[in-house]
Write a structure and sequence with these properties.
348 residues, mainly beta, four-stranded antiparallel beta sheet
Length: 348
């Protein structure tokens, strides 16, 4: 016969077992959630480095990479070996510029500081500090490597005599400091006479390098004009913008020469300095296009993420593209074959 006490004891045991099972399931669930969250956090940490800027050495043997993790890295192109890591900036490295004589590498970041480095050793040569401490943007060397143009996003442009460490010229590209006048790109003409500027109101502006006078300007893109670059003979300019349109301009008059449309915003453009010039640009997510407006475009795959920056080697043989997942693709454009895939270390 089963007594009430026995019955209660039995149900107590069952309750304890059920409770233990439920508790175990809850613990497993919580552990799984924590593991998932930690995994997602690690994935986010692994992917929070993206390539913002590239600069080739004049001889094409090395490439410098500026990243959102505040570092500048210098790589040997043929071997893919990381040679130098520079960690002096305290903000994302927005632009790099290798001097035409090969002796200096300039880096600019959101910390408002321009560093000049010896690219062979990674040692700092000098530091230039702007008045716009949190808004430094873009860099471009004069063809003779004597002067450096650098800029804050809000519109101030300085021309600096690097050897003598002094300001040569200062001008405001827009006259105002608001969102519509953020500077997004800057490029010194190969003939040394002019400076091309792209801004967030969609315009490009050409300045006389001696006086700072505006020679012409135009609304080039709907949305931001993200980049502007010169042809080797300084006769043409190419620009790209948020509207996904690649445009080529007469650099003397500002007249539109040609255009083509991609399927995504164009963040970066570059013109090969060769006898048969080609333009590299991002035409779609994970894809780099090469255009000359005479032959069909060439398309090079660059993973599945956005391409933020493209850069030709000086001789036009190699093309590099930096992505949003801390990688740099390098192709030999004589064969259109990928020769390197560099992965920028994620510095904690």
């Amino acid at each position: 016969m089963t007594t009430p006490t026995t019955k209660n004891t039995k149900w107590l045991k069952i309750s304890l077992i059920v409770g233990a099972v439920i508790g175990l399931i809850c613990c497993i669930g919580i552990a799984a959630l924590l593991f998932f969250a930690n995994t997602m956090n690690n994935i986010t940490q692994d992917n929070d480095t993206w390539v913002r800027s590239l600069a080739w050495s004049p001889d094409g043997s090395k490439i410098a990479v500026g990243s959102s993790n505040h570092t500048v890295t210098i790589w040997d192109v043929q071997s893919g070996r990381l040679l130098i890591t520079i960690s002096s900036h305290t903000s994302s490295v927005r632009d790099l510029a290798w001097s035409p004589d090969g002796k200096m590498l300039a880096s600019g970041a959101g910390d408002g500081v321009v560093f000049i480095w010896n690219p062979q050793t990674g040692n700092m040569i000098k530091q230039l500090t702007t008045t716009e401490q949190d808004a430094l943007g873009f860099l471009s060397w004069s063809p003779d490597s004597y002067w450096l143009a650098f800029t804050g996003h809000s519109g101030d442009i300085l021309i600096w005599d690097v050897d003598n460490n002094q300001e040569i010229l200062f001008f405001d590209s827009s006259g105002e400091t608001n969102l519509k006048n953020l500077i997004t790109g800057i490029s010194w003409s190969p003939d040394g006479t002019r400076l091309a500027i792209s801004t967030a109101d969609g315009s490009i502006n050409i300045r006389d390098i001696q006086t700072g006078e505006s020679l012409w300007s135009t609304i080039a893109h709907s949305g931001w004009a993200n980049d502007v670059e010169w042809s080797l003979d300084s006769d043409l300019l190419v620009s790209g913008g948020d509207d996904g349109v690649l445009k080529v301009w007469n650099a003397e008059t500002g007249d539109l020469f040609n255009e083509t449309k991609g399927s995504d915003s164009i963040f970066s453009v570059d013109w090969s300095f060769t006898s048969q010039p080609q333009i590299a640009w991002m035409s779609a997510r994970g894809q780099v296009a090469i255009t000359d407006f005479q032959q069909p475009d060439i398309f090079l795959p660059a993973g599945n993420d956005k391409v933020w920056v493209v850069a030709w080697s000086r001789d036009g043989q190699f093309l590099a593209a930096g992505t949003g997942v801390n990688t740099v693709y390098i192709w030999d454009t004589t064969t259109n074959q990928q020769i390197q895939l560099l992965t920028v270390p994620n510095i904690p």
